[in-house]
Design brief:
alpha/beta; Rossmann fold; 11 helices; 16 strands; binds zinc ion
């Protein structure tokens, strides 16, 4: 099999050929047809998020089942599955037992503590694989598996408010903006300074307001979700929300948050972070994804151009989400929907 591997923090990804792994008793061997590129992959490449190097990143995996571990039930050879960031949980810690497996004390994370989907093949724990809505092609479904899922968890933690701000209009925001609008909310999109292309993209998806994060809409917002990894955006977002409003930090890594006046937090404003996902987030989100008719905007790259995809993510040059296509799928037809 072919992988794109990161040997150590700050190393570029390297093409490595390896033997195809065999699934353990509770695992599936999957032929990858598409794998989304997430900002977390960039943080792993930069050593900002812990990982077991050398590591094959990638946790927005779509593929087909090639081989089934002997204890696995409910899957068939050839079936399409999705593999998310949450690769395995312990099943018995206090968090696992209280419906918060996203906070498990001994988790495995796809593409961080175990090899992920920047590859032609991957093994994954069957209990943590998802069926995906048929209405999405493999490429279109890939960004749902983290950008969509984490966005969905963040949107639920933002509460039921009508006016939602999204700061950093990339892969996650472009999906979750459509969900928010479908739910009947007003969505306000905040982009990098001068990124009129991202602002136009946000308006084209139905956002009622789009502008740089230095500007503020006329109305106070009920909640703001921050997808950009920039700590200075947290105190700025606090100034955008009404009394009792929430600021949700949806990224796994952020630069330091500068000091701010207590008056900005006063009046029961809240700041919270979103960590990982539960399997319930997945099943509820894929239902919403199918019902809402949302579409993902993707830019595809051959697997071996993973470094180029990561560079384009880093510089903000992508519109929507980057998706890697391994060589076998690239030459097949029908995957691009
Ligand atoms: Zn646990
Ligand atoms: Zn991710």
């Amino acid at each position: 099999m072919i992988t794109m591997q990161i040997d150590a923090p700050h190393a570029v990804l390297r093409r490595v050929e390896r033997p195809i792994p065999r699934p353990r008793a509770d695992q599936l061997l999957i032929a990858v047809t598409a794998c989304g590129v997430c900002r977390t992959d960039l943080h792993i490449a930069d050593g900002e998020v812990p990982a077991n190097y050398p590591i094959v990143p990638g946790h927005e995996i779509v593929g087909h089942v090639l081989e089934i571990g002997r204890e696995v039930e409910g899957f068939q050879i050839g079936q399409r599955v999705g593999v998310p960031w949450l690769g395995r949980t312990c099943g018995h810690c206090g968090y696992c037992l209280s419906g918060r497996e996203n906070l498990c004390d001994a988790p495995e994370f796809t593409g961080a503590t175990r090899d992920g989907g920047y590859a032609t093949h991957v093994v994954a724990d069957a209990h943590f694989c998802f069926a995906l809505p048929d209405s999405f092609s493999d490429v279109a479904a890939a960004p749902l598996l983290c950008a969509g899922l984490i966005g969905w968890r963040a949107l639920r933690l933002a509460g039921d408010g009508r006016r939602i701000g999204l700061v950093g209009f990339g892969a996650a925001a472009h999906i979750i903006a459509q969900v928010g609008i479908w739910q009947g909310r007003e969505v306000y999109a905040f982009t990098r300074e001068g990124d009129t292309q991202a602002q136009a993209f946000a308006r084209s998806l139905g956002c009622c307001w789009a502008g740089p994060s230095s500007e503020r809409p006329r109305q106070d917002l009920d909640a703001v979700i921050i997808f950009a990894p920039v700590g200075a955006l947290v105190p700025a977002a606090l100034k955008l929300v009404r009394k009792g409003g929430r600021v949700v930090c949806a990224g796994i890594h952020m630069s330091d948050i500068p000091a701010f006046a207590y008056a900005d937090l006063w009046a029961e404003r809240q700041i919270l972070s979103v960590a990982n996902l539960t399997r319930e987030d997945g099943t509820s989100f894929f239902e919403v994804a199918a019902q809402s008719g949302l579409r993902t905007v993707t830019e595809t790259f051959p697997l071996e151009q993973a470094n180029i995809a990561l560079d384009r993510l880093r510089t903000g040059a992508l519109t929507g989400a980057a998706v890697l296509i391994p060589p076998r799928a690239e030459t097949a037809t029908g995957y691009h929907g």
